[in-house]
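Q: Could you write out the predicted structure for this multi-component system? I'm mainly interested in how the pieces pack against one another.
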Amino acid sequence: MNTPLPNQPVRGSHSGVAIMAVFDLLGRKWNMRILWELRTGPQTFRTLQENCDNMSPSVLNNRIKQLADARLLATSPTGYQLTELGNTLMTTLDPLRAWASVWEKQL
Amino acid sequence: MNTPLPNQPVRGSHSGVAIMAVFDLLGRKWNMRILWELRTGPQTFRTLQENCDNMSPSVLNNRIKQLADARLLATSPTGYQLTELGNTLMTTLDPLRAWASVWEKQL
DNA sequence: CTGAATCCCAGTGGATACTG
DNA sequence: CAGTATCCACTGGGATTCAG
């Protein structure tokens, strides 16, 4: 359950290369989904859970901690929300989304 | 062991959204590493295995199939190599690498 | 409602030995 | 060398329950 972070071994690589940590983190079930759900604004534990197909609270809690450890998400008076870092990550992903749509067409 | 592809459920999401498939695929152990190793040119099964910490042949074989299914890798007379799609993916990842290095510094 | 603690199961990754 | 077939161990994800 430890959070994938740069400069440490992660699933798939123990080189510590930062991008490997990104893929480990975002490749884990629900993490991308959670960040995606928060793009539009803060949400409470409960609503987040509902919006993520009623995922287990244990797992949601786990993911919140991971994303918080990674400084992508933080608590706010109105629930959980993306940090600045989290927001920039989401926009950085845009080109990858574009690539993915080309990929999708070529398959 | 089925390959994560667009328009089908993958780990973390059964929405079929293409980028989720990318993260499932690249989040799996060794896949990024393999693509990375092939960036400089074709490699044989054996050398690929050596360059990836002598990973199990069963797993390597499995990953090669996945990446081939995803059209990111193909066989060539001199071994395995990236496809055009595989190459564009690698370059598309550049901004993400840049983000990851900022992330690394902020942690 | 939030979130922590247990327990359980499947899937994934890995070691190994074997065949072409 | 390339690739396959078994078999096994582990961890990650999930259900459930309980506490703050």
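A: Regarding packing and overall arrangement: The longest strand of chain A covers residues 73-76.
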